[in-house]
Amino acid sequence: MIAIYTEPQKAQIWLDRYRGQRPAFACVLGFTATGLIPNISAAGATPEDRKYTAIADAEFLVTGKNLNFPLPPLAAGASPVLISRAVVAGQDLPLFIFNAGLAIAPTIEAIDLGGKPAQCVSTGAALPLVTAKHLFEQGLIWGEKLAQAGAYVILSECVVGGTTTALAVLTALGLDAKNKVNSSHPTCNHDQKWQVVQSGLQHLSPSATALEIVAAVGDPMQIAIAGMAIAASRQAGVMLAGGTQMLAVYALIRAIATQQNLVWNPDAIVIGTTRWVAEDPTGNTLELAKNVGDVPLLATKLSFSDSKFAKLRAYEQGFVKEGVGAGGAAIAASLYQNWDQEKLLQAIESQF
C-alpha cells in the first residue's frame, strides 16, 4: 500500500524503523488571500466558500461531523479530510490542531500559534517578518512537544491556495518549480499560478533569507511546520504529509537550518502524499522532488476506482488529489495497523 518514488534506500530504512509504531497527527491551519483569487483553487467552489475550507475541514477532522460549517462545495470530488478522519479516528491517533493564521476563528479547540493570515503572494508582503519569526519559534517549541506524542509525527496542513505559495517559496529559494507543482484542479493552472508568483517575486531582494522569503511570498503554515519538523527530527521521525506544499516546506527547512546553523536530522524526515499527486500528469511532482533533493517521497497506493461513491471516484479523474494530510494518514494506516486497500476504503466510505 506504500510506494517509494525517490531516495529508495533512505525511504526503506524509515519505513522499517516506524512499521507498527503509532504516530501523532498534527494539522496546521493557515490562510492566504491568494486562495481568494478566482479559479486559483478548487478547494471550495467560490472565493467565499474558500474562506471557510480550513475551518470546516478541521471541524470534521476532530469530530467526524460539521457542526457549524459544511465541508466546502467542490466542482467534483469530496474533501480529503474524509481520508484523514477515517485513519485518525479508526486507529486512535493523538491529534493536534494548530491555528497558524486564519482569517476566521476556528470552531473547534485549536492551539493558537499567534500568527496572522497572509496577504496575497502577488503583494510581495504576505506576512510581517516579525510574524514569520514568531511562527518559526512557536514551531520549534511545539515540534519538541509533538515528538513526545508518537513514535513519529505526521505534520499536515490545510491552506487554500497553498500550492501557489509553495511555487513562490520554491522559486525564491532558487529551485526550478515552474510547471511542476500540483493543484486541486484536474488540470493544473500553471500559467495563472506563475503570473501571481512573478508579481510577488519582483518585490523580493535577491539576497533575501529563507525567513524573509516566507514573509514576502509564503503563508503562515509553511514557517510553523518548518520549525516543528526541525525540532521534532532531533528526537523522532517526521512525515511531512502533502505534496508540492511539503516539498516547499522541506526546502525551507534546509535553507533555514543552514542559514541559522540549527541542528536537525534530515534522515528522520520523509514526505508522504497520495499517488494522485505523485503521478499527476498535469504536474511533475517526481521531478520537483528530485530538484529539492535528498528527501524520500512516499505515496499511498490507495485507489477509489471501486468506490460506491462518485465523489470518491472523482479522485481517479484528477480532482482534489490531496489535503489535510490525507496521503500521510493513509500511509500511516498501512504502516501502523497494516490496513489494506479494502479496510482503508471501508473506513473512508463510512465517513459519508
What does this structure look like?
This protein has 352 residues and is of the alpha/beta class. It has helices at residues 8-18, 47-50, 53-63, 81-90, 129-146, 162-172, 190-201, 210-217, 220-233, 244-260, 275-278, 285-292, 310-313, 326-337, 341-349, and strands at residues 2-4, 24-30, 95-101, 111-112, 152-158, 237-241, 269-274, 297-300. The protein has one domain (2-349): Rossmann fold (3-Layer(aba) Sandwich). It has an eight-stranded mixed β-sheet, sandwiched between helices. The chain is globular and about 50 Å long. The two termini are 23 Å apart. The model has no long low-confidence stretch (mean pLDDT 97).
Question: What characteristics describe this protein?
Answer:
352 residues; alpha/beta; Rossmann fold; eight-stranded mixed beta sheet; 15 helices; 8 strands; 43% helix; 12% strand
- SS field, number of helical segments: 15
What is the 3D shape? globular
Strand order of the largest sheet: 1-8-7-6-5-2-3-4
Helix percent band: 40-55%
CATH architecture designation: 3-Layer(aba) Sandwich
Q: Unreliable segments (pLDDT under 50, ≥5 consecutive)?
A: none
* CATH C-level name: Alpha Beta
Kindly state the number of beta strands: 8
Name the average pLDDT. Answer: 97
* CATH superfamily label: Nicotinate-nucleotide-dimethylbenzimidazole phosphoribosyltransferase (CobT), large domain
**What does the largest sheet look like?**
8 strands, mixed
Strand % is 5-15%
- The CATH topology assignment is Rossmann fold
State the domain count: 1
